[in-house]
Amino acid sequence: METTTAPSTKGRPREFCVDQALSQALAVFWSKGYEGASMADLTEAMGITKPSLYAAFGNKESLFHKALDLYESEKLAYTREALKQPTARAVAENFMRGAIDAQMSKCDPKGCLGVISATACGAEAESIKADIITRRASSQAALVNRFHQAKRDGDLPDHVDPENLAVYLYAILQGMAVQAGSGATRAELERVVETSLMMWPSA
Prior knowledge:
Elements: E1 3-6, E2 14-17, H1 18-36, H2 39-46, H3 50-57, H4 60-74, H5 77-82, H6 88-103, H7 113-119, H8 126-152, H9 162-181, H10 186-198
Antiparallel strand pairs: 1-2
InterPro entries: DNA-bd_HTH_TetR-type_CS (IPR023772), Homeodomain-like_sf (IPR009057), HTH_TetR (IPR001647), Tet_transcr_reg_TetR-rel_C_sf (IPR036271), TetR_C (IPR011075)
Keywords: DNA-binding, Transcription, Transcription regulation
GO molecular function: DNA binding
């Protein structure tokens, strides 16, 4: 566990756990979005001063990028497991059910950090929105590749376009994230998954 020495206004410098502070910052960004999270919100949650935050993480934008790395590593691990499923339908189901588990966790804020921050970004935070879009495009490309493999395996019918199918699935996932952040229940999101699977193309 990494620790760093933070500047102190008086007395000896104070050490704090960088990983723990970053985890607290992630929780703030997740619940408030990038623009909604103030420096006061962040430093209070992280238990450090503003100079300590700058010294350890850089500015607010740099802190968000690091928090997003942590989010993808810990909270989106289900997406990497979903791609390993034996059928395209199982891939989609694992994506959607994994999203529900992540978005409805009792330990974390509701909804999706990427969706929350991207939809709430103004002109001054275009770099944040661009980073989220780039990361999403990379994940979506991996899903497209998996659907291409499913088509080669005969697991998807010939008329299905893998790119369009991936866009469709991401539209469902993003809609679920918005609903989760707006107060939808787990049961309501489960019904979205069941309905989507009923319409899933089969070979």
